[in-house]
Amino acid sequence: MRGNKGCLFVVATPLGNLDDITLRAIDTLKGVELVAAEDTRRTRKLLSSLDIRARLVSCHEFNEAKRVEIIEEAINQGNDVALVTDAGTPGVSDPGARLIAALRERGVEIVPIPGPSAVACALSVCGMKADSYHFAGFLPNARQERKRALERLATLEELLVFFESPHRIKATLKDMLEIFGDRRAFLAREMTKAHETYISGTLSHILEELSPHEKVKGEITLVVEGSSERRGEAEVLPRELTQLLKALLSGSHLGVKEASRLIASLTGIKKGKVYELALKIKDEA
User: Fold this and answer.
1) Of 91, 70, 92, 90, which is closest to residue 81 (Cα–Cα)?
2) Among 44, 149, 192, 259, who pairs with 248 as Cys (CB 3.0-4.6 Å)?
């Protein structure tokens, strides 16, 4: 506390299972006068389950800047305020950063109340070493912008962590295959909820598991290996790649597409580059 002023508590809330809320988060929510929530309806359900009757005010992406005055006034009157989002931690691919920055500039004390994190949950069970990772959040909606974003990430050696919506996940996986090659990956869907799903393998395997006729549901966290983890282990020279493709195309029943996918998965070379070379070899045969 600073004098007679209250403070802003940034409270992490459950991803889906309400039992995941921390004891400290419960105590904090019980003690505040006002809760600024991304969606007041969802937060009211959480508070009701905890028998908490704090006053709610909406604070989301489209009104965050307008809420600064209301929240600062409450704090200046000596009231503590909690900031929550629909799930997880405010400010991490969720509203909150602009509000926090504005209040800090005005001298408001800001205290984090840690708890559930989709990133930490996915990393903990992905089976890939996560000493270092790059959190990319949500990729752009437009395909060309998304591909440019992926191209900027393609050379990073750290694990890559993404959030993705269910209606766009297949398109994103296809773009990743084209730009990254068939890297190891891990998909987590509906974490901590009744229908939570985990798929481990390569990008192509995950895409195949998400059947073309299946409507994907639920928010998704995707972990993809960095550029050096597999490519450094099996770097193939152009001449060797040509020889390998020729052997596959002439000595097996694999077509251009299947052979390209296999070589990309074994070497980490972008599938698009392998496919172009395979087509050239096929035309010259």
Assistant:
1) 70
2) 259
Q: Which amino acid is at 168?
A: R
How far is C-alpha 163 from the chain's CA centre?
2
Give 97-141 pLDDT, tens digit per residue. 999 999 999 999 999 999 999 999 999 999 999 999 999 999 999
Q: 95 vs 11, 46, 168, CA distance in Å? A: 12, 18, 21
How far is residue 182's CA from residue 263's CA, in Å, rounded to a whole number? Answer: 9
d(CA 150, CA 139) in angstroms, rounded, equals: 8
Q: Give me the phi and psi of 133, to 5 degrees please.
A: -150, 155
The structure tokens listed for 141 are 């909606």
The residue whose two tokens read 């459950």 is 14
Q: Quote the percentage of the chain above a pLDDT of 90.
A: 71
pLDDT, tens digit (0-9, with 9 covering 90-100), for 46-103? 999 999 999 999 999 899 989 999 999 999 999 999 999 999 999 998 889 999 999 9
Q: Mean of the per-residue pLDDT values for the chain?
A: 91
Tens digits of residue pLDDT in 158-185:
999 999 999 999 999 999 999 999 999 9
